[in-house]
Amino acid sequence: MHAFLIERLANELSSKIEGKSLKEVFTTSKHEINFVFKDFGLKINFFQGLSFFQTPEIRKLQKKNRLPVFRSIVGLNVSKIKVYPFDRCFAIYFENDEILKYFGYGRFSQISHYKMDEWLENFPVKSNQITMDKHTKDVNLSWLADDTRTEDLKFLDQNQRKYLKNNGFNDKSVHHKKQKLAEIYRKSLTTSLFINKVNSKYELYFDKRGETISAFNSSLEASDQFARLYISHQVFSQTKTNHLSALNKEYQRLLKRLKHAQIHVKELNESKKYKDKADLIMANLWQLKMGMGEVTLPTFDGENQIAIKLKKDLSPQDNATRLYTKGKNEKIRLKFAFKNLEFIEHEIVEKSKEIKRLELIDKLIDLRKIKNTKQSNQPIKLPYREVTYGGFQIRIGKGARENDELLRNFSSKNDVWLHAKDVSGSHVIIRNSGNQMITEAVIERAAQMAAYYSKAKSEGLAAVIYCDRKYVRKPKGAHPGMVKVDREVTILVEPQS
After folding, report:
1. Between vectors from CA 430 to CA 427 and to CA 432, what angle results, nearest 5°?
2. The CATH number fitting domain 234-376, selected from 1.10.10, 1.10.287, 1.10.150, 2.60.40
């Protein structure tokens, strides 16, 4: 806010509050202060390094969460308002030598409370004290010099400095500089004020520029309307920017997930054919024996040979069974990998549409509608990840506290509980809502996941315990994830996700 507008506001305020008693001063936030007179309300909003004067209806002022400030001036009459020409400040004098002084110094804007010349406090609360003796510029402009440039006129706003510069201010003599500055001074104090929209931003100016929104004779009315438009626009812009930034981050995360999912599908497609290897073992049982670590066998077409790694502690038939099982699991994993890939691709399309919709929004109310809809449609965050195998839901806890929640709220006594033996890891639940017979294959698959989501993840074979959920209990005072188990059975499996 430039000095001439502040002077104009001070002059108009003088006609509103001189001789009147201040009934109340309060704040509802650290950036906003309200002054209440009998029939006049003044709000000064310190917003993003700027300050705005508003004149709300007294009856519409916030009733709750009021914090009184400047208590000693409440009930006092306003004696006068003093303006400081060519500076961004004015002073309100009260009875008993109490003074409130407004400084419109950008991010240093504040209201200071004085008793005589003794500084008492600031609003917003700041440690710096602006002394009163610096405001000495006289109206005859005797302080102007030949070397004074528009850059030195800090009390003007950017538009006014640009106006003067474009009219040759810097190259003029002192005499002409005084004429030019006096001209813009008179014009700022007497002409209509205009709210313009220039390059999508609002400005309060003494001339028409860009798209003119409104014209005012009253500086208080102009300032009030400008504050509403400017703050609303800034809130909208910042909210939209933040929302777009969040959506773009989500979009980029989805692209990374897509890349990983594509690689995973490719690896599964290119993985060794476990079933083919198992078939070769079964076809060549006569030449295999227990204790062999690897064997090279001709393919069925006789054109190639393939090396097959074997478990030395398993018989040839058991090795074949193990490979058949891995082949079946690999097929299931590929199926789920494709589903995951399709899901991510769908999410990317939807996220792209959401970004495009947001980019077209130009009203705060519409932006809030989208945010509220998005929030209301947010899925409930569950404490577990879930997969389906053999017609059964398998739930895997996401962490220690989530393990507790999984047991407490998302499992029942007829379910099967699994956990990697003697190491920390996820609790795994096989849901059995229909009291069905849970097959060994389902238990083995769940055990593989229990091993994978544990400290035994890197082991070739891991021990996993399981039992009915009703035999698992949480001891009183135990740490998150800690349980006591009865009637458990141990199974050895290869950790697999």
Report:
1. 140
2. 1.10.287
